[in-house]
Amino acid sequence: MHELAITQSVVDEVLSRAGSRPVHAVHLRVGALTAVVPSAVEFCFDLVAAGTVVEGAKLHIDLTPGRAACRSCGVSFDLPDPVLLCACGSADVSVLAGRELKIVSMEVG
């Protein structure tokens, strides 16, 4: 489960910014094409935050849908899964959104 390592990295980064101030909330943006399961991150969050100033913080995850543009026909389209294929049949596409994994903000007190 790579979500544990990802969540540990998120908490480590939050800790580095929060210092000794208690953290009340962490807001993440996770792209649908990252192969990160939000429910697994939520499960791991409380485990890795235990005993730190992040313990008890609320985790908010916004899921960004996948989006791509076809270089062959010029159409932009949604990507419901990691299969990078346009309806025209071309695999020559550029991903516009859905690969993000960002700490958007955190609330400290």
UniProtKB/TrEMBL annotation:
Keywords: Metal-binding, Nickel, Zinc. The keyword GTP-binding does not apply. Ni(2+) binds at residue 2. The keyword Metal-binding applies. InterPro entries: Hydgase_Ni_incorp_HypA/HybF_CS, HypA/HybF. Zn(2+) binds at residues 70, 73, 86, 88. This is Hydrogenase maturation factor HypA. It comes from Asanoa siamensis. The gene is hypA.
